[in-house]
Design brief:
The complex is a heterodimer. Chain A is mainly α. Helices cover 76% and strands 0% of the residues of chain A. In chain A, α3 packs across α4 and α4 runs antiparallel to α11. By secondary structure, chain B is an alpha/beta fold. Chain B has two domains: 168 residues, Rossmann fold (3-Layer(aba) Sandwich), CATH 3.40.50; 73 residues, Helicase, Ruva Protein, domain 3. In chain B, 37% of the residues lie in helices and 26% in strands. In chain B, α3 packs across α4, α3 crosses α5 and α4 packs across α5. The radius of gyration of chain B is 20 Å and the shape is globular. Classes of the chains: A mainly alpha, B alpha/beta. At the A-B interface, α2, α6 and α13 of A face α1 and α3 of B.
């Protein structure tokens, strides 16, 4: 009964979700001359700069460095944008939440989905670089939707959790931006794994983004099938994050109105 | 007569803002001092019971801060009462305060769809009613202009047009009838009357005795969180106006 009600409500408000996602995308590039092209250009230009900096100054010995870098950047960029935007979504929707009855999860959810959509556009940049360099497409790329959906679900869980935390403790937004910077450096995005000391490398497996990025690089850049363990680790992170996010959100959502 | 809204012994308790814990520092300090986090309770509503019949329109009256808007929020499902319950048998549309449902960066056209979706209407319905909404708001010339460039009167017009285009069973109006110029206000009143004639229940919060008498048959007087009077609107206004 409860599940049926929730499902009905989701159908009723699915159009709102769509409208909110469209709004985010429209506003993002409104009045810019190149518009959506920026979603492709931005990661591409960033990659060129970082490639110049890191392959000349630090001389990392990574095969296919531009694609390696871009793959990591796309996933991490999506994670950091989606979760940061979802974090402020309940506070940002305060005016509405106080006036109309709405399913509140629609605010973080729409933010994560709009980030996801623009990340899909950015994927074009990755394909351009793959074609431009001597990386060959491999059949393993059919797993691409599978890993992208996992990252999406992980971000939804994290976004739900953060949006709740920030309602009760505003400090979280400042802490989280520092956390993101640390996280960025703790994940091998622009440097090779081998650069890390032994003990730190063993801890990497506890970093969900490291696992997703590794999976993603394997299927796009190196044309390898991920092992069963790698599949299971990714799925476990996705599942746990979603359950935690949903649980906390559901328990606390009725108190939002008293704190926003 | 079928009851459309039944409030049964509704009480609402807030923790006052001074006792709110907004930051980790506050929480730590509180924990160290062994203080409870919900210290100062404020009862915004005390055992309020009343009911509204289908098709009957009802005003909530009372001084500022007496709990009228809290009552409306409980009826709309935005707040959950601390004690008691509210039963609502029908769809509710709120007349959202000056553009709270609008995104100021989007155009009037885009906002019509955004606002419609927020009110829970379907895309099909909004496409059908779209022209009617623009005509009623008289904003056809400005419909592709971002709403941030609208005047407050224009925003109110658009908001009113959207909220009243689809006939809900209950329309919640919170002190916003006094917007727009005289001509538009007359139009609003006429539309409200039309809606009521076709069976919509209007829940009105207002300080204008004229508006209240014009629209409502019943009044609920809430005074400092307590129910003072429920019944005929003229009687209620007489009692309310009497000093002391």
């Amino acid at each position: 009964m409860h599940i049926v009600d929730s499902a009905k409500r989701l159908v009723k408000y699915s159009w709102l979700l769509q409208v909110l996602v469209e709004r985010d995308l429209k506003i993002r590039y409104r009045r810019s001359f190149l518009g959506y092209l920026w979603s492709v250009l931005n990661p591409l230009l960033m990659m060129i700069i970082l490639t110049i900096v890191f392959s000349n100054m630090f001389r990392f010995d990574i095969p296919q460095y531009p694609v390696y870098l871009l793959a990591g950047q796309l996933i991490f960029g999506f994670y950091s944008e989606a979760t940061s935007m979802a974090m402020g979504s309940i506070l940002g929707g305060a005016a509405l939440i106080k006036k109309v009855y709405l399913p509140k999860y629609i605010f973080p959810l729409s933010r994560v989905i709009s980030s996801f959509t623009s990340m899909l556009l950015s994927m074009i940049a990755l394909f351009i670089v793959i074609i431009a360099t001597d990386v060959t497409f491999s059949i393993t790329i059919i797993l691409l939707p599978f890993i992208l959906v996992q990252v999406l679900v992980f971000c939804i869980g994290m976004g739900l959790l953060l949006s709740v935390l920030v309602v009760f403790f505003r400090d979280v937004q400042y802490l989280y931006s520092i956390f993101l910077t640390a996280f960025n450096y703790l994940t091998p995005i622009f440097y090779p794994e081998s650069l890390l000391p032994e003990w730190l490398r063993e801890l990497l497996v506890f970093n969900p983004l490291y696992n997703y990025i590794k999976f993603f690089r394997k299927i796009t850049v190196y044309g390898q099938w991920p092992t069963m363990t790698e599949h299971l680790i990714c799925l476990a992170f996705t599942f746990c994050m979603l359950v935690i996010g949903l649980y906390v959100f559901k328990r606390k959502q009725n108190d939002f109105i008293l704190y926003i | 007569m079928q009851k459309i809204i039944v409030a049964d012994n509704v009480s609402m308790c807030f923790n006052l803002a001074s006792e709110r814990v907004d930051s980790l520092k506050d929480l730590l300090i509180k924990k160290i001092k062994f203080q409870s986090c919900s210290f100062d309770e404020f009862w915004a509503l005390n055992n309020i019971s009343f009911s509204v019949d289908k098709g009957e329109s009802c005003a909530l009256i009372g001084a500022n801060g007496s709990g009228k808007s809290t009552m409306l929020k409980i009826i709309s499902g935005i707040l959950t009462p601390t004690k008691g319950s509210v039963e609502v048998n029908g769809s509710i549309a709120p007349l959202i305060e000056l553009g709270a449902g609008f995104d100021y960066e989007l155009t009037g056209r885009e906002n019509i769809f955004l606002n419609g979706a927020i009110l829970g209407y379907s895309k099909k319905l909004m496409l059908e009613k779209y022209d009617e909404i623009i005509d009623f708001s008289e904003l056809r010339d400005f419909i592709d202009v971002p709403v941030k460039n609208y005047s407050s009167g224009m925003i109110a017009r658009l908001g009113f047009s959207i909220a009243t285009m689809v006939k809900p069973e209950i329309l919640v109006v919170d002190e916003i009838l006094a917007v727009g110029d005289q001509a538009f206000q007359d139009k609003c009143h006429k539309r409200l009357e039309d809606m009521m004639n076709s069976g919509t229940t209007v829940l009105l919060v207002s300080h204008s005795a004229a508006d209240i008498k014009r629209i409502c048959q019943k009044a609920v007087w809430i005074d400092k969180s307590n129910l003072r009077f429920v019944g005929n609107v003229d009687e209620a206004l007489q009692l309310y106006d009497k000093p002391g």
